[in-house]
């Protein structure tokens, strides 16, 4: 049992040992992509396939003395380790089904961002509400009905018993007054 890579050599012709970092790096360069694709086909999950690939090469490094090039090629030996690691991964997932439902770190970060986004939206809502309180009642009503509730101008004008042109004027002046109120409050739009 030699623990050496078959067909991989360093510049001076020596074959690096699988038990050292250079040997594992060379083995990964030769077979890492193949092992990853093998794990991906077997598991169907890119993150799990990455974990299995990493664990395969860690196990190969830890047990380099078990590799015998007379029994099998390095590729075959790595595939055997990968297969066993995939089986271990599936068994572990079956024991911990809740583990697959945990949020990944990017998901947690995105959720944290959405919480601050919700807080910003809430604060903005309060500021707009305070600005609306500073408007004349007829301007506030026109703006709330058309912009905040998204109702059509003709429907709102009919309900308010005013011409559509008058409603448009009220909305225009309400927007101008709201901007002025927000400026007074120190809020920029």
From TrEMBL:
Protein keywords: DNA-binding, Sigma factor, Transcription, Transcription regulation
A Pfam family assignment: Sigma70_r2
Record carries keyword Cytoplasm: no
Organism, as annotated: Nocardioides furvisabuli
Tagged with keyword Transcription: yes
Domain RNA polymerase sigma-70 region: 28-93, 132-180
Protein name: Sigma-70 family RNA polymerase sigma factor
Taxonomic lineage of the native organism: Bacteria, Bacillati, Actinomycetota, Actinomycetes, Propionibacteriales
Family of this protein: Belongs to the sigma-70 factor family. ECF subfamily.
